Every structure is written in C-alpha cells, then in structure tokens.
UniProtKB/TrEMBL annotation:
Regions annotated as coiled coil: none
Protein name: chitinase
Keywords, alphabetical: Carbohydrate metabolism, Chitin degradation, Glycosidase, Hydrolase, Polysaccharide degradation, Signal
Family: Belongs to the glycosyl hydrolase 18 family.
Domain of life assignment: Bacteria
Pfam families given in the database record: Glyco_hydro_18
InterPro entries attached to this UniProt entry: Chitinase_II/V-like_cat, Chitinase_insertion_sf, GH, Glyco_hydro18_cat, Glyco_hydro_18_chit_AS, Glycosyl_Hydrlase_18
Species this protein is from: Streptomyces albiaxialis
Length: 421
C-alpha cells in the first residue's frame, strides 16, 4: 500500500438446491429426481473454496494506522467525532507484521497496551490497570458497540513489512493457522471480522524483491480462505497495469476466487521519488496527454483486472486522503520539472489533505483529480469534488465500493469521507 510514512505502501461453492414446488405426473417426477441426483453427485466431486460472506457491493473501507496515535495524535475516538464511523462499512487496521512465516503483532503498545483516559475514550470510560486489553483494540471494540454493523479487519504487511510474505508462502497452511490464532486471541475476542493481506508485491519488487513465484499469492489466499471459512479475506494489490508490470507477475485471477474483494491501490502512481519530475497527479482516474507512464491510472487498472477475469463487484477503487508534491516547480500545469520533493509535515513529498486544502489550494484538474501550484510547490490530491466524480465513474463500472488510505488525513469533520458516494 503506497501511502504515508511507514507505508508505500469466489470461486463459487455450490449452493443448496431449491425444492421443487410441484410435480406434474409420476413420470416427470422420476425424471426430475434422476436429474437432481446426477447434478448433486457431480457437485459433490467439486472442491470449490468456501463462499465468502458477502459481495463487495456498497463497501466503504478506511485504513486506520496504529502509528497514528503518536505524532499524528489520531485515535479511534476521532473516527467517531469526525462522523466517519457513520460512513464506514469496514476498517482495515494497519498493520500486523509477517515474521518467521507467521502473522505477528505490529506494535503491542499502540495495539493493546496504551491506556486511555475517559476524555480520550470512545465511550467516555477510562481504562483500568487490570483490564486484559487496552489500546486501539479496546477502543475499536467500543466503537463496534456503537456501530454494530461495522466490521474490522486486521491488515498485515504493507510496504515496510511485506518482506516476510516470501517465507510465509513456503508453508501457506501454517501461515494461515498463525493468522487465525492471532486474530482470535482471547484478549480481543470478537474484535476482528477477517483479515486483509497487503503483500507489496508478490513475485515482484517493493521495498524488497520477492521471488516466491507466480502461484504463491493464490496459494497463500487459498490457505487463508480454507482456514478463515466464512470470515472476510481481502487483499490490497498492485495498481500497475503497464505491460510486463507488477500485475503480470502474480496470478491475480486465480487468487481472486478466494477473496471477498480486492483493494487495488489506485494512488501513488507518481510522486517525488522521481525528484526532478515530471510533475504528475499521484491518483489520476484516467490517462491524459503527457501522462508519464502508460497503465498508471485507475481506469486502466480496473480494466486490466476485469480483462484478467476479476468480477467488477470484487474490486474497490482506492482514494488517497493525502497529496504528493514537488518543489522548485515553475510550470503550473502537469509535466513540469522540479528540484526535489516538497516539504511535508511528517515526510518530504507527501502531506495530508487537511493540511494541503489551505496550505496549497487546488488550482486545476487533470485526469479526473486535482492539482495545485503555489509558489514553487506543485501538489496533487483529491478534493470532495473529484471524489464525487470518481464515485460516479465507479458506479458506472459496477465496482463494489471504495477504500481509502487513511483516516487521519481527512479533516476533523470528515470532509473527504462524506464526499464518497
């Protein structure tokens, strides 16, 4: 998942047979019975994966980062006070680590040890010293009590921690067993409704290069589906639709039968890792004249996944609640040269929407997203207007919903999430 600091991060089971409501004559009944027996016998020979709990239709998935409780001072209570909880269907909790072929805790202090006062707590009740779980996990349990339909998944990997997936892929069943046991730990029983895998990138390069083979991703997800049954299993995947790019390196088609939905990371296509530019929006919806690389836009990403055979309702489109920018830029329009990344509050070249909307207001649009030129800085980011237009496009495409990275980048009153259709 390409994103902020620390982050760049069915198949169908055979359904039950419907009962016959009427029989016209004994002979017809016999024929029908024989036919049904034949079909059922054939179905019994199939080994289809367990059916996911639901289609992706209408999903709105937001990532919550465990490190956000530090510098960003963003806590679970902010999800409630911003109004975001009313808009979310799912929260992906980022991140758990992958070590020694197993799912492991990412940050125990933030996850379940940090003590919250009554003022900081979702329900106004302070933590006590002897309760079994505190931290984000306890606050999320409280949030679920307020919003019973809200589902929470634990996301593993990300840009920084994807290096462990290669080892996990050597024994997918053991990996799945470890993940299932961790998510169902008695201390936070009832918190997690499933697992999200953020492998950057199967059989390709991210922070490190993976050589697990083209089938490894599908094998890993198959094992997770087998272990998690009707719990949610999802995966954040590459948005690289270029010829020979990351999407061609793993079998995303086969793997898709085991997930409830994919989250293709349709942002961070371009950024100030190319320090001299050319400037380009990091989350273009469509290609445009002068776009630096073919296949690096949401429309092409979704089209390629559909061509591979992934159903549209298993695809969520991704939004970044942040912008990426350069400095030393003279040209207002995209395609200009730069001298390096623009300064950001937490990291050079990147800043939250809540900062950029006033620091460097949008001055134009290209490829279905906004850009801004202020002084010698050039930024691109989504606004409520462009998010609304992207939602219209996604509905026309029959996509299953949206997801975004990540909650703390929005304004205190949830300006961006409230623009999601």
């Amino acid at each position: 998942m390409l994103g902020t600091e620390k982050r760049r991060s069915r198949g169908r089971a055979f359904g039950t047979r419907r009962k016959l409501f009427a029989v016209i004559g004994a002979a017809c009944a016999a024929v029908l019975a024989t036919t049904m027996l034949t079909v059922n016998a054939s179905a019994g020979q199939q080994k289809a994966p367990a059916k996911p709990t639901a289609s992706a239709a209408g999903k709105n998935v937001g990532y919550f980062t465990n490190w956000g409780v530090y510098q960003r001072n963003y806590h679970v209570k902010n999800i409630e006070t911003s109004g975001s909880a009313d808009k979310l269907t799912h929260i992906n909790y980022a991140f758990g680590n992958v070590q020694g072929g197993k799912c492991t805790v990412g940050d125990s202090f933030a996850d379940y040890e940090k003590t919250y006062t009554a003022e900081e707590s979702v329900d106004g009740q302070a933590d006590t010293w002897d309760q079994p779980v505190k931290g984000n996990f306890n606050q999320l349990l409280k949030l679920k009590k307020k919003h019973p339909d809200l589902k929470i998944l634990w996301s593993f990997g990300g840009w920084t921690w994807s290096g462990g997936f290669g080892e996990a892929a050597k024994n997918p069943e053991a990996f799945a067993e470890s993940c299932f046991n961790l998510l169902n730990d008695e201390r936070w029983k009832g918190l997690f409704d499933g697992i999200d895998i953020d492998w950057e990138y199967p059989n390709a390069c991210g922070l490190t290069c993976d050589t697990s083979g083209k089938d490894a991703f599908a094998n890993l997800l198959k094992a997770l589906r087998g272990k998690f049954g009707d719990k949610l299993v999802t995966a954040a995947i590459t948005a690289d639709a270029s010829d020979g790019g990351k999407m061609d390196q793993a079998d995303y088609k086969s793997a898709s039968q085991y997930v409830d939905w994919y989250l293709p990371m349709t942002y961070d296509y371009f950024g100030a890792w190319d320090a001299q530019g050319p400037t380009a929006p990091h989350s273009p919806l469509t290609k445009y004249d002068g776009i630096p690389k073919e296949g690096f836009n949401t429309e092409d990403t979704i089209a390629k996944l559909k061509e591979l055979g992934v159903p549209g309702d298993k695809l969520l489109y991704g939004l970044g609640f942040y912008g990426r920018g350069w400095t030393g830029v003279k040209q207002a329009e995209p395609g200009g040269t730069a001298t390096g990344p623009a300064p950001g509050k937490y990291e050079a070249g990147i800043d939250d929407y809540k900062e950029l909307k006033s620091k460097c207001p949008a001055t134009g649009k290209v490829g279905g997203t906004a850009y801004a030129h202020c002084g010698e800085q050039w930024w691109s980011y989504d606004t409520p207007e462009t998010i609304g237009a992207k939602g219209d496009w996604a509905a026309q495409q029959g996509l299953g919903g949206t997801f975004f990275w990540e909650l703390s980048g929005d304004t205190p009153d949830g300006e961006l999430i409230k623009a999601i259709k």
